[in-house]
């Protein structure tokens, strides 16, 4: 900045771009062609994406079997809380008309189960689940301590309501031979959940690590007996437990239960044929008028079998095009009789 | 006396001079000036108390308390306390800095030195320690920081001249005199402190500074109330939903969970839910709204301070925004009330032209032969040969100089008259330069002109006037002084020149003087008349000049009669007036002078441009009607093209009413017949009527009203007539108004027109008007400070008003509106998803987002881009803003942000929240991740929503920003980057290991944001929420382009040279002879001169002279007091002062 000597330098504002509001800038002024071509391009993209998504969703397969009513007797038994220790199993046969190719995932799906209630969501203790302090049950109300004051592990409403049906899929190889479809329980949790967020308290013996705590009221057995065969799947590290603890956003949700181990007969996936689910029916959904089902599904490049995104993209694309055409019509119609700025600005 | 006017309780003041002990009994205030609010100890409690008095802060405190109740706490406490503490700290820091400055300036004033008589000795004392009753010695050119009573002075007769520049901006000296009893007492000026500190007249008159708010502020408050009502409705809906849900589903679900402790009545649960949702949804009006608004205004204020185009190098004065809370109101001004002297005019009179013996001198012809004022190209007359010449004086016509050199007797006589017939006092400064003390700048201009042309007024005594005529000293004997008054409109002197001839020299208003001429002057009179019309047409102030040769005998007779008349007891004034009439006749016309009341630079352009912007300019001045009208013409506010100029000058209420009625009839009669007579309408009807009529009135009208009439017109029953008439006129000039009336006029318009007003002035007499208008502007750089101190904005030149309003004001308004629209949109989009989510989570007041996101969204993730837009955005550049004043009109019509706009923003926000919520909802329903794991867990949903929201609002701000500077780029991209880095940090393993309960979202960002599906959702959400807006805007611009849209298109289309607007003001007018005679001083100075009271003793000649015996020594002072109306109050004849 050059100052002339007669100017009082202390009071003359500096001649900088910021202070004089002369910052170099580009003025965002979209031209009609720019906007219209943008609309058309977006429309093309959305339509294309929509079609791809729909086609890929169609290519995947999904079977859902709602067994709330099918296992009516078990459901009835479970309605009474006192029957909690009575076993009830139920077999649900079904026919697969087409081979499910590729990786097949088995989910359980619950209807009307509110895992997103404010109080429910808060009722857990992350520091307990981290294994640092098993007795930290501060945030777990109302399931923090049992009647005699022993802290519950794992505490809280979420843990207490753990989904505890066991589902076994068996394949009818021929009329007499039923083989159990090999399923993997590993890889159904997030890596961070399994290795960061959930830890067993460090101790040589898991049961001693949980000494001084008690099992959640609705659980039939304590947490350290969830899977006694596999120490990596026991205690807080139990995959089903971890999956359950990742609460769902909506009252209808499905959670990954098992995935197909592609061995022997099942290298290609699930071959067509007759199957049955053998369910040990423990989770009493009818008490809150919920429902539960089991889902077998294959995946696409973008994830699960869902038409919504594809449809939404298609609709958006179509709307964008519609808008683009009508805008173009308006613009062209007006073009002839538009005023130039000078006609309106009279000075 | 005047303490009883100011304070009801204090009827009289008892003061013993120089007796501090006695005076202390009364506990008068000390002289310390306190404008600061806090000291170190009181700062925290007082400041906090003040801050929590603000509704917004108190509201957030209330929310904080709500959040601390565990039953209804749906958000953790830090979501509110973090922003609240931030805001309170920022405000406190700002208040503390402000107060620091006040402390500094107080100290500066308080520590000025004065000399006080203590224990019989003069001691230096700081002004703040001066006590009531102290005797103070003042010397020439010292500041006075208290109300003082003059006891005596070194000047003869206890006179003292004071300058009141800091009070009213007037730089001419005012005479004060000591009481006769005290004036004998001592040399030098000593004064008695009478009112101190907060009791001074100034502090008493400064009035309570009203807290000004902008109309946007008021609108915002209304909208916040609306929003609050809206929130309560949402809360009630959700609470009812919760009750129903609890009854139908919740009970069973709870019993399934064995949640026995949680069992509660469904209605009670609904009640708690209501409060929980109030807490969650309060983010629609986040505290950051108020802070951001303040920050934006502060930024705009700095831009005003920094603007080099509003810096006046002549006085080294930059523009200053003294109030930082009113900026956007500058973009909505409809009425400008302007003072005249010092604001429109420079208060500098320059001798421009003269007509001597039928010939005009001073015309400048440029190359095109046009008589214009392009003076800079011409070579001015060189006065350097004349050692006495005033260097600043410029004259561009060499003919006059030649005529003087040729010895034209008429020209000589003309200049001699100018050098002799006046009330100027001369003085030599240390450098031997002549300094003139002038009572009116007009006279100063004339005497200075004569001086430069070789007729230098050197000195005067009561009996003589000495002038230097072309190098030779000539002393004239002053025989009589026929003073000026408002009725005579002329003044004369009778002198005897060294040759013994007696001459009467007279100058005065042409209309008066022309009647007194000798019949032989007829030809010259016609010629001079034409010249006068021409001068007047150029807006110059004119005086006619004439002389008369008197013979000795006649004069002696006349003088004898004058002496008799003076000694007469009854009808003295009438007799003297008669005698004056008698001798001032058969005059010989010499010519006329034309003095320019110099307008400030660029006034005409500014006025023209502001009227193009539909801003109505009213001139409120204390000047005489003629002067005011003259200036009106000079500034192009009044033109001869106007259909009619109504002049209201009645002296009684009935007259005024009648005149107003006539004017109105006249106005309506030319357009359509109007209801006859005077009807007082209901206020509302009146306004409607006025607005209807306003549209039907064609043609330009102007209204001139004087102070007397205004006093009557402001009475309640005529008020509406006045307002209606005034608002239909293009120009309104109020002359001879008092400061209070100025304020009343402003209040009138403010109240009944609902318009935004701006008052601009430079003196203390404008303070009341500046304070009562929505925006007060002070002209700074003058010596007076009062107007500036009371003002909201100050700058040195009237012409900067154009830039202040059309550029800064317009931009401020534009930016603020854009900011508010976006801010409300953003927060509706942000908050309402909780409402939609309520329907899926059993109305359990579960938030959609992570608590940290809620805390940071408004203060970190989205605050800076919108601030950058609010501070830097420009739709059209400053040059175009100035070139197209019509761009200003959306602000006046309140188009850019109003209730309708707000509803649109709200709808936009609601739409976005719908898209934000339901697209992920649909996509997550029954979906699974790429690895087959479930996708629709709460945390992933929260992260997806939050990410989409940040991206959508960032895209939206990118669309809204029309002026992309580096700062905008940095802030917009930076905000998105900040969002992702904070997201990944908070979801990182490390931070979870340290605070497992505070950051439960571990691994979420990593997991969710690597899923293609989630990005598809985010993309779709963005497209769906942004595309409709783009389409609507495109259609709006295409179908109904505003002027600014067109200009922007053109700005882009062709960056060619900007259009040259030769809006050269047409100052030339053909006809309209107005008598703008150039007298601005008070009468009474003639007596002052002839009595010699105002002259140094050494200059006084040895007694006796013709005039000396005319008056006894005090009568002239009494006369002066009587005639000087505005000085009476401070000529304190306070009886209670005991000496």
Task: Write the SSE topology.
The complex is a heterodimer of chains A (347) and B (1139).
Chain A: E1 26-27, H1 32-59, E2 62-66, H2 72-79, E3 89-96, E4 100-101, E5 105-111, H3 118-122, H4 126-129, H5 157-160, E6 166-172, E7 178-180, E8 183-184, H6 191-197, H7 206-209, H8 239-245, E9 253-260, E10 269-270, E11 273-280, E12 291-297, H9 308-335, H10 341-344
Antiparallel strand pairs in A: 2-12, 3-11, 4-10, 5-9, 5-12, 6-7, 6-11, 8-9
Helix pairs in contact in A: 1-9
Chain B: H1 2-6, E1 15-16, H2 20-24, H3 40-53, H4 55-67, H5 78-110, E2 113-118, E3 121-126, E4 135-138, E5 147-152, E6 159-162, H6 165-168, E7 174-177, H7 180-183, E8 189-195, H8 201-205, H9 215-256, H10 266-281, H11 287-306, E9 320-321, E10 333-338, E11 345-356, E12 359-361, H12 398-406, H13 409-420, E13 425-428, E14 434-437, H14 441-452, E15 455-460, E16 464-469, E17 472-482, E18 490-496, E19 502-508, H15 510-513, H16 522-537, E20 541-550, H17 552-567, H18 572-583, E21 588-599, H19 603-612, E22 616-620, H20 625-634, E23 644-648, H21 653-669, H22 683-696, E24 701-706, H23 707-713, H24 716-728, E25 731-735, H25 739-753, E26 756-761, H26 767-772, E27 775-779, H27 786-790, E28 793-795, H28 800-838, H29 851-861, H30 863-872, H31 878-883, H32 889-892, H33 899-924, H34 938-960, E29 963-964, H35 966-986, H36 989-994, H37 1004-1008, H38 1012-1039, H39 1043-1053, H40 1085-1091, H41 1115-1123, E30 1137-1138
Could you give a quick summary of the protein structure above?
The complex is a heterodimer of chains A (about 350) and B (about 1150). With about 350 residues, chain A is an alpha+beta fold. Chain A contains ten helices and twelve strands.
Could you characterize what this model shows?
The complex is a heterodimer of chains A (347) and B (1139). Chain A has 347 residues and is an alpha+beta fold. Chain A has helices spanning 32-59, 72-79, 118-122, 126-129, 157-160, 191-197, 206-209, 239-245, 308-335, 341-344, and strands spanning 26-27, 62-66, 89-96, 100-101, 105-111, 166-172, 178-180, 183-184, 253-260, 269-270, 273-280, 291-297. In chain A, the strands form three sheets. A five-stranded antiparallel sheet of chain A has the order 2-12-5-9-8. Chain A is extended and about 80 Å long. A nine-stranded mixed sheet of chain B has the order 9-28-27-26-10-22-25-24-23, sandwiched between helices. Chain B has a nine-stranded antiparallel sheet with strand order 12-11-21-20-19-18-17-16-15, sandwiched between helices. A five-stranded antiparallel sheet of chain B has the order 3-2-4-8-5, with no helix packed on it. With 1139 residues, chain B is α/β, with parallel strands linked by helices. Strand 1 (26-27) of chain A pairs antiparallel with strand 29 (963-964) of chain B, so a sheet runs across the interface. Chain B: Residues 1051-1072 have a biased composition (Basic residues). Chain B: Belongs to the cation transport ATPase (P-type) (TC 3.A.3) family. Type IV subfamily. Chain B: This is Phospholipid-transporting ATPase. Chain B: Pfam families: Cation_ATPase, PhoLip_ATPase_C, PhoLip_ATPase_N.
């Amino acid at each position: 900045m050059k100052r002339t000597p007669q100017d009082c330098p202390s009071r003359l504002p500096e001649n900088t771009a910021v202070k004089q509001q002369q910052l170099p800038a580009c003025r965002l002024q979209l031209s009609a062609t720019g906007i219209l071509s943008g609309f058309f391009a977006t429309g093309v993209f959305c339509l294309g994406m929509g079609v791809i998504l729909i086609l890929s969703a169609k290519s995947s397969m999904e079977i859902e079997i709602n067994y709330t009513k099918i296992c009516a007797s078990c459901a009835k038994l479970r309605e009474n809380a006192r029957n909690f220790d009575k076993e009830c199993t139920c077999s649900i046969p079904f026919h697969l008309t087409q081979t499910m190719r590729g990786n097949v995932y088995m989910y359980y799906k619950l209807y009307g189960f509110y895992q997103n209630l404010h109080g429910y969501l808060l009722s857990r203790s992350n520091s307990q689940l981290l294994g640092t302090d098993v007795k930290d049950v501060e945030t777990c109300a109302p399931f923090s301590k049992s009647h005699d004051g022993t802290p519950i592990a794992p505490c809280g409403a979420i843990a207490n309501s753990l989904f505890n049906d066991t589902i076994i899929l068996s394949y009818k190889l021929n009329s007499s031979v039923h083989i159990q479809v090999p399923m993997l329980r590993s890889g159904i949790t997030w890596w961070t959940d399994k290795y960061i967020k959930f830890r067993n308290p460090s101790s040589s013996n898991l049961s001693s690590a949980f000494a001084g705590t008690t099992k959640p009221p609705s659980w039939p057995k304590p947490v350290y007996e969830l899977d006694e065969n596999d120490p990596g799947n026991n205690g807080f590290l139990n995959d089903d437990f971890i999956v359950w603890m990742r609460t769902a956003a909506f009252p209808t949700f499905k959670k990954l239960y098992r995935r197909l181990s592609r061995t022997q007969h099942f290298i290609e996936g699930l071959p067509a044929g007759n199957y049955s689910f053998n369910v040990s029916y423990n989770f009493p959904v009818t008490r809150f008028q919920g429902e539960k089902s089991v889902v077998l599904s294959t995946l696409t490049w973008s994830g699960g079998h869902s038409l919504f995104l594809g449809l939404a993209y298609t609709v958006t694309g179509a709307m964008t095009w519609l808008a683009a055409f009508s805008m173009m019509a308006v613009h062209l119609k007006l073009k002839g009789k538009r005023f130039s700025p000078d006609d309106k600005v009279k000075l | 006396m005047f303490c009883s006017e100011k304070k009801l309780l204090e009827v009289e003041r008892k003061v013993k001079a120089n007796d501090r002990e006695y005076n202390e009994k009364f506990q008068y205030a000390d002289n310390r000036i306190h404008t600061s609010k806090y000291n170190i100890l009181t700062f925290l409690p007082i400041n906090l108390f003040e801050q929590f008095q603000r509704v917004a802060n108190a509201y957030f405190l209330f929310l904080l308390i709500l959040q601390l109740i565990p039953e209804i706490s749906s958000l953790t406490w830090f979501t509110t306390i973090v922003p609240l503490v931030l805001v309170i700290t920022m405000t406190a820091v700002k208040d503390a800095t402000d107060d620091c400055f006040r402390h500094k300036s107080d100290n500066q004033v308080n520590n000025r030195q004065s000399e006080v008589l203590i224990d019989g000795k003069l001691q230096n004392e700081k002004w703040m320690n001066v006590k009531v009753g102290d005797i103070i010695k003042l010397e020439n050119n010292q500041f006075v920081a208290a109300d003082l009573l003059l006891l005596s002075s070194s000047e003869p007769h206890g006179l003292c001249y004071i300058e009141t520049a800091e009070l009213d901006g007037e730089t001419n000296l005012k005479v004060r005199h000591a009481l006769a009893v005290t004036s004998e007492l001592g040399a030098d000026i000593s004064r008695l402190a009478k009112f101190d500190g907060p009791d001074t007249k100034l502090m008493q008159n400064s009035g309570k500074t009203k807290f000004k708010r902008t109309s946007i502020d008021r609108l915002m408050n209304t909208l916040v109330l609306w929003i609050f009502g809206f929130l309560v409705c949402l809360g009630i809906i959700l609470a009812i939903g919760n009750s129903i849900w609890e009854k139908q589903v919740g009970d069973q679900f709870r019993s399934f969970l064995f949640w026995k402790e949680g069992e509660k009545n469904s209605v009670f649960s609904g009640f708690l839910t209501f409060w929980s949702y109030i807490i969650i949804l309060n983010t629609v009006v986040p505290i950051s709204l108020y802070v951001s608004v303040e920050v934006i205004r502060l930024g705009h204020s700095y831009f005003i301070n920094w603007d080099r185009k509003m810096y006046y190098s002549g006085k080294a004065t930059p523009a200053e925004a003294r109030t930082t809370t009113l900026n956007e109101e500058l973009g909505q001004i409809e009425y400008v009330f302007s003072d005249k002297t010092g604001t429109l005019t420079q208060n500098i009179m320059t001798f421009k032209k003269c007509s001597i013996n039928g010939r005009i001198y001073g015309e400048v012809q440029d190359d095109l032969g046009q008589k214009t004022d392009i003076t800079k190209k011409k070579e001015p007359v060189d006065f350097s040969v004349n050692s006495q010449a005033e260097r600043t004086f410029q004259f561009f016509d060499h003919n006059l100089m030649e005529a003087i050199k040729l010895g034209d007797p008429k020209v000589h006589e003309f200049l001699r008259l100018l050098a002799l017939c006046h009330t100027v006092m001369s003085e030599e400064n240390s450098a031997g330069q002549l300094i003139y003390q002038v009572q009116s700048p007009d006279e100063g201009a004339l005497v200075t002109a004569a001086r430069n042309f070789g007729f230098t007024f050197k000195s005067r005594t009561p009996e003589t006037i000495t002038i230097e005529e072309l190098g030779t000293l000539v002393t004239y004997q002053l025989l009589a002084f026929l003073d000026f008054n408002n009725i005579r409109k002329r003044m004369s002197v009778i002198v005897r020149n060294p040759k013994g001839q007696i001459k009467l020299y007279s100058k005065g208003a042409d209309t008066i003087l022309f009647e007194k001429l000798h019949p032989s002057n007829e030809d010259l009179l016609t010629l001079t008349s034409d010249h006068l019309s021409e001068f007047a047409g150029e807006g110059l102030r004119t005086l006619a000049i004439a002389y008369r040769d008197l013979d000795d005998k006649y004069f002696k007779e006349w003088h004898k009669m004058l002496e008799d008349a003076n000694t007469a007891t009854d009808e003295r004034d009438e007799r003297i007036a008669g005698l004056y009439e008698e001798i001032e006749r058969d005059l010989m016309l010499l010519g006329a002078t034309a003095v320019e009341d110099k307008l400030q630079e660029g006034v005409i352009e500014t006025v023209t441009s502001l009227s193009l912007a539909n801003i109505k300019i009213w001139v409120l001045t204390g000047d005489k009607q003629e002067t005011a009208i003259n200036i009106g013409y000079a500034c192009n506010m009044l033109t001869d093209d106007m259909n009619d100029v109504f002049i209201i000058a009645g002296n009684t209420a009935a007259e005024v009413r009648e005149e107003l009625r006539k004017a109105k009839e006249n106005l309506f009669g030319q357009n359509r017949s109007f209801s006859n007579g005077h009807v007082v309408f209901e206020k509302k009807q009146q306004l409607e009527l006025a607005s209807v009529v306003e549209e039907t009135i064609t043609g330009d009208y102007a209204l001139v009203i004087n102070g007397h009439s205004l006093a009557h017109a402001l009475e309640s029953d005529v008020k509406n007539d006045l307002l209606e008439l005034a608002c239909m006129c293009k120009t309104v000039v109020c002359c001879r108004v008092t400061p209070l009336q100025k304020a009343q006029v402003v209040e009138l318009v403010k109240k009944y027109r609902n318009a935004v007003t701006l008052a601009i002035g430079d003196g203390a007499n404008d303070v009341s008007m500046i304070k009562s208008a929505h925006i007060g502007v002070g002209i700074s750089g003058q010596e007076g400070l009062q107007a500036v101190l009371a003002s909201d904005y100050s700058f040195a030149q009237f012409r900067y008003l154009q830039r202040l309003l059309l550029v800064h004001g317009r931009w401020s308004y534009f930016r603020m509106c854009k900011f508010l629209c976006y801010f409300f949109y953003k927060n509706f989009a942000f908050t309402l998803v909780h409402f939609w989510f309520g329907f899926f989570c059993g109305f359990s007041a579960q938030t959609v987002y992570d608590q940290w996101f809620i805390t940071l969204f408004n203060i970190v993730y989205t605050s800076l881009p919108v601030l950058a837009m609010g501070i830097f955005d420009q739709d059209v550049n400053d040059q175009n803003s100035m070139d197209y004043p019509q761009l200003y009109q959306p602000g006046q019509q309140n188009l850019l942000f109003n209730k309708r706009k707000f509803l649109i923003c709200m709808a936009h926000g609601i739409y976005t929240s719908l898209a934000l919520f339901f697209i992920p909802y649909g996509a997550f329903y029954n979906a699974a991740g790429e690895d087959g794991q479930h996708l629709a867990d709460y945390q992933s949903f929260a992260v997806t929503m939050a990410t989409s929201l940040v991206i959508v609002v960032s895209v939206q701000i990118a669309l809204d920003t029309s002026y992309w500077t580096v700062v905008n780029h940095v802030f917009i991209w930076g905000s998105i980057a900040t969002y992702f880095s904070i997201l990944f940090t908070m979801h990182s393993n490390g931070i979870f290991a340290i605070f497992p309960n505070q950051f439960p979202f571990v691994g979420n960002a990593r997991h969710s944001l690597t899923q293609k599906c989630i990005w598809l959702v985010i993309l779709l959400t963005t497209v769906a929420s942004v595309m409709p807006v783009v389409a609507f805007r495109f259609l709006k611009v295409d179908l109904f382009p505003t002027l600014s849209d067109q200009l922007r298109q053109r700005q882009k289309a062709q960056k060619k040279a900007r259009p040259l607007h030769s809006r050269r003001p047409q100052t030339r007018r053909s006809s309209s002879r107005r008598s703008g005679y150039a007298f601005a001083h008070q009468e009474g100075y003639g007596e002052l001169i002839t009595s010699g009271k105002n002259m140094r003793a050494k200059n006084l000649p040895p007694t006796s002279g013709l005039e000396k015996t005319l008056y006894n020594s005090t009568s002239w002072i009494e006369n002066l007091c009587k005639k000087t109306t505005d000085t009476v109050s401070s000529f304190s004849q306070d009886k209670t002062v005991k000496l």
